[in-house]
Amino acid sequence: VQLQASGGGLVQAGGSLRLSCAASGRIFSGNAMAWYRQAPGKQRELVASISSGGITNYADSVKGRFTISRDNAKNTVYLQMNSLKPEDTAVYYCNAIDPEYYTIGNWGQGTLVTVSS
């Protein structure tokens, strides 16, 4: 499996979750990694990205609430989500990206995050 996301669940608004994504070494090594999400009836959107050197970028909707990080020794990328809102409800996916933000790996099954009001 190239990309395996985990850590989703049901949480109340204002709560926190930490997502993990284990990637194959071929996909992870030297590449930027990103988290995406897809809410019901909506297109998949980019949530956050982190370069191989640790430079991060966030969608405006999650700035100040979400933190992306990576552990290069474990080929794993994380997404710490705080102050969750009902509009954060979605299936969350991870992928490696190239400098033009094209995805590199095959999409995994994602992990469902449900935020109740």
Would you kindly provide a written description of the structure presented here, covering whatever features stand out?
Helix content is 3%, strand content 49%. The protein has one helix at 25-28, and strands at residues 3-6, 9-12, 17-23, 32-38, 45-50, 56-58, 66-71, 76-81, 90-97, 111-116. A hairpin with a 4-residue loop joins strand 7 and strand 8 (76-81). The chain is mainly beta and 117 residues long. The mean pLDDT is 96.
SSE topology:
Blueprint: E1 3-6, E2 9-12, E3 17-23, H1 25-28, E4 32-38, E5 45-50, E6 56-58, E7 66-71, E8 76-81, E9 90-97, E10 111-116
Parallel strand pairs: 2-10
Antiparallel strand pairs: 1-3, 3-8, 4-5, 4-9, 5-6, 7-8, 9-10
Short summary:
This protein has 117 residues and is mainly beta.
Core attributes:
117 residues; mainly beta; six-stranded mixed beta sheet; four-stranded antiparallel beta sheet; 10 strands; globular
Structure class: mainly beta
Percent helix: under 10%
- Uncertain spans, ≥5 residues at pLDDT below 50? none
Which geometry do the CA atoms define?
Answer: globular
Strand order of the largest sheet: 2-10-9-4-5-6
Tally of strands: 10
**How do the helices and strands follow one another from N- to C-terminus?**
EEEHEEEEEEE
Report the mean per-residue pLDDT as an integer. Answer: 96
Determine Rg (CA atoms, Å). Answer: 13 Å
- What portion of residues belong to β-strands? over 45%
How many DSSP helices?
Answer: 1
Distance between the termini: 34 Å
Largest sheet, in brief, is: 6 strands, mixed
